[in-house]
Design brief:
- The complex is a heterodimer of chains A (about 550) and B (about 120).
- By secondary structure, chain A is α+β, with helices and mostly antiparallel strands.
- Chain A folds into four domains: about 100 residues, Sulfite Reductase Hemoprotein, domain 2, CATH 3.90.480; about 160 residues, Sulfite Reductase Hemoprotein, domain 1 (2-Layer Sandwich), CATH 3.30.413; about 90 residues, Sulfite Reductase Hemoprotein, domain 2 (Alpha-Beta Complex); about 140 residues, Sulfite Reductase Hemoprotein, domain 1.
- Helix content of chain A is about 35%, strand content about 15%.
- Chain A has 18 helices and 21 strands.
- Chain A is globular and about 55 Å long.
- The termini of chain A are far apart.
- With about 120 residues, chain B is an alpha+beta fold.
- Chain B has one domain.
- The two termini of chain B are about 25 Å apart.
- The chains are: A alpha+beta (about 550), B alpha+beta (about 120).
- Chains A and B meet through helix 1, strand 5 and helix 14 of A and helix 2 of B.
């Protein structure tokens, strides 16, 4: 894992002290709310419905046990004993007091954490594959590049006041676990025939009010030119992105307006002017790469007797292994996904006690490495198969062994109207009701991969546009209604979902999802996922079934 | 009927106006009839208290079980707490007014908040 150096640590200490002064000036009346709001947002502090919310950055979703324990402690000390993991792989505390915020930033800084780049019109936390460094699918470790972007983008003076927020995702595997094509910039690491590494550069994807699947503007960018090329893209966006209309300010609107070819031409022209001066020197790249060097993997046989025996004797463990354990690049190891989607609980929430359990397990069995996924789960990327029964037992005792990764109850949901000042409708209870419908794990496994994503407003924090089933909360004269979309995907086969029909009232949504699943089970052919069946049949049979009552 | 609400600056707590001061429970809030000029006066006074509260606005109320409750769902959630954690927020205290809020139905945004949004 990357270790902060003296410069990083001093920067965090300075930032925290600066914010303490700003809070004091706000409380004394020296700063008005309008003056203070932009300062607190630059430190991830929002005012929501019931309290302040502090969004803590988890750069590229990577945590060590000390950091996770500190988050648990902050949750217990300053919040109500829990935290909420987000689709940007950050962590939100929902019950924060303004007067406590400077102390919390100090505590975060003590473990090299902060709330920088979690709000405002800057380059936000770069996300990457939660299986980085563990999956055999990747051509390189994407964390190296995510860390390079972190260092380049943090407090970048030219890109601190962009027309709008800016999000970058990097994947190095063909199976995209980062939703790269719906980011402002998506980077896909590839290896050319001659062995050279490069990025496919996708620009202008996004969700929100006007969803776009980003076009590729460069098929192969040599990796050592990454930062100058990013700078060229940001510079074109900063110059021409719209500042007159917040709904048209994201880069996706600019790319769509110019057309990808013209946008690419302008980027190339700017890039030629910038030259190589801002690119990462090889020595610095080597230093960063060193921080992600493979840890002490043991040479182990592919088959673990302890693992096989436990699977044979304990059906619940076998189910967990089937759904939550993924193949590791090293024989004798596995990647463990920890679902934060226990049936009936709030998607993405972890109690302080649960965070401590995960930290302990990571320390004992997982090389001290913890990841956050954009689907609001956690990952222990390096666990020996021999240790899986013990890890599972530890998770099970803490209510963290729900065997539902990628299944129907593994739902993304934003905080919605239960917390968020922007929301039009609740998202969490809808997720809870749907999960309850599929409490029977046999049925959930029979349904197979099905990604449901729920947003409480059009800003789409819950990624509803790219849900196999997407659910968007809307406000109809003050009442909660929900617009369903089908056929979206945030993966390598990215697509924006199509509207099913008129919005449904709150109490009808879970039943409608149940109906959609029944139609899929009726219509599916061998090996088809929900998404595949929908793509083959189109919306008609689904629409007919859900709105049958209306006819 | 109307009530005046805001969030307290120091901790973000939802508060309601009562006789020149801010209280935490909706049950204690001062209520005005729709045409009562005192509501608008209180709003102006509240907005001048920038080191005490933020986002001051009037909310519309509706009758529920013989008591008054915020008309809009959003305002009822603010007055109660999040529905996914019944033991979090003001609802944890329970009581007749809390129950009336939980059972209330109404379907409109508060005019005060609409004005607040428009001003931004």
């Amino acid at each position: 894992m990357y270790q902060y150096d003296t410069i990083d640590k001093e920067m965090l200490a300075d930032r925290s002290a600066e914010f303490r002064g700003q809070v004091a000036r706000r409380l004394s009346g020296e700063l008005t709310e309008d003056q203070f709001k932009r300062l607190r947002l630059m430190n991830g502090l929002y005012l929501q419905l019931h309290a302040y919310m502090l969004r803590v950055a988890i750069p590229y979703g990577s945590l060590n046990p000390t950091q996770l324990r500190k988050l648990a402690w902050i949750g217990r000390t300053y919040d109500k004993g829990y935290g909420h993991f987000t689709t940007r792989t950050n962590l939100q505390f929902h019950w924060i007091k303004l007067k406590d915020a400077p102390d919390i930033l100090d505590h975060l800084a003590s473990v090299d954490m902060h709330a920088i780049q979690t709000s405002g019109n800057c380059i936000r936390n770069t996300t990457t594959d939660p299986y980085a460094g563990a999956t055999a699918e990747e051509v390189d470790d994407p964390r190296v590049w995510a860390e390079a972007i972190r260092q380049w983008s943090t407090f970048h003076p030219e890109f601190t006041f962009l027309p709008r927020k800016f999000k970058i995702a990097i994947t190095a595997a063909p199976k995209d676990r980062t939703a790269a094509r719906v980011h402002d910039i998506g980077l896909v690491l590839k290896r050319a025939r001659d062995g050279a590494l490069g990025f496919e550069v996708i620009v202008g994807g996004g969700m929100g009010r006007t969803p776009h699947i980003g076009p590729t503007i460069r098929e192969f960018l040599p990796v050592n030119r990454l930062l100058s090329y990013l700078e060229a893209i940001l510079r074109v966006y900063n110059r021409h992105g719209r500042r007159d209309n917040i709904y048209k300010a994201r880069i996706k609107i600019l790319v769509a307006a110019l057309g990808k070819d013209e946008f690419a031409r302008q980027v190339e022209a700017e890039w030629a002017k910038i030259g190589e001066a801002v690119d990462l020197p090889d020595t610095e790249l080597a230093r960063i790469r060193g921080a992600f060097a493979p840890l002490g993997f043991e040479t182990l046989p592919e088959r673990s007797e302890a693992f096989e025996t436990a699977k044979a004797s304990t059906p619940a463990f076998a189910r967990f292994a089937r759904n939550n354990v993924k193949p590791h690049k090293k024989s004798g190891y596995g990647i463990v996904e920890i679902s934060l989607k226990a049936i009936g609980e709030t998607p993405g929430d972890a109690t302080s006690d649960q965070m401590e359990v995960v930290a302990d397990l990571a320390e004992r069995f997982g090389q001290g490495d913890i990841r956050v996924t954009h689907e609001q789960n956690l990952v222990l990327p390096h666990v020996k198969l021999d240790d899986l029964p013990a890890v599972w037992a530890g998770l099970e005792a803490a209510g963290l062994a729900t065997p539902n990764i990628n299944l129907v109850s593994d739902i993304i949901a934003c905080p919605g109207l239960d917390y968020c000042a922007l929301a039009n409708a609740r998202a969490i209870p809808i997720a809870q009701h749907i999960a309850e419908k599929f409490r029977d794990q046999d049925r959930a496994e029979q349904v197979g991969e099905l990604k449901i994503k729920i947003s409480g407003c059009i800003n789409a924090c819950g990624h509803h546009h790219v849900g196999h089933i997407g659910i968007l909360g809307v406000d109809k004269k003050g009442e909660e209604f929900y617009q369903l979309t089908l056929g979206g995907s945030g993966a390598e086969d990215a697509a924006v979902g199509s509207m099913l029909g008129p919005a449904l009232p709150y109490e009808k949504v879970a039943d409608a999802v149940d109906t959609l699943v029944d139609v899929y089970l009726r219509e599916r052919k061998d090996g088809e996922r929900f998404l595949d069946t929908f793509r083959r049949t189109g919306v008609a049979p689904f629409k007919e079934a859900v709105y049958a009552d209306a006819h | 009927m109307k009530a005046l609400t805001a969030n307290r600056l120091t901790d973000g707590e939802v508060v309601f106006w009562k006789d020149g001061a801010w209280v935490e429970r909706f049950a204690d809030a001062q209520l005005w009839s729709d045409d009562d000029a005192q509501a608008v006066e209180a709003e102006a006074q509240g907005k001048s208290q920038g080191t005490t509260v933020v986002d001051v606005y009037l909310i519309d109320l509706v009758e529920s079980e013989g008591l008054w409750a915020p008309l809009s769902y959003r305002e009822r959630i603010r007055a109660l707490g999040p529905t996914n954690h019944p033991h979090h927020g003001k609802q944890a205290e329970g009581g007749a007014v809390i129950e009336a809020l939980q059972h209330a139905s109404g379907a409109a945004r508060s005019t005060g908040r609409v004005n607040l949004i428009k001003r931004k």
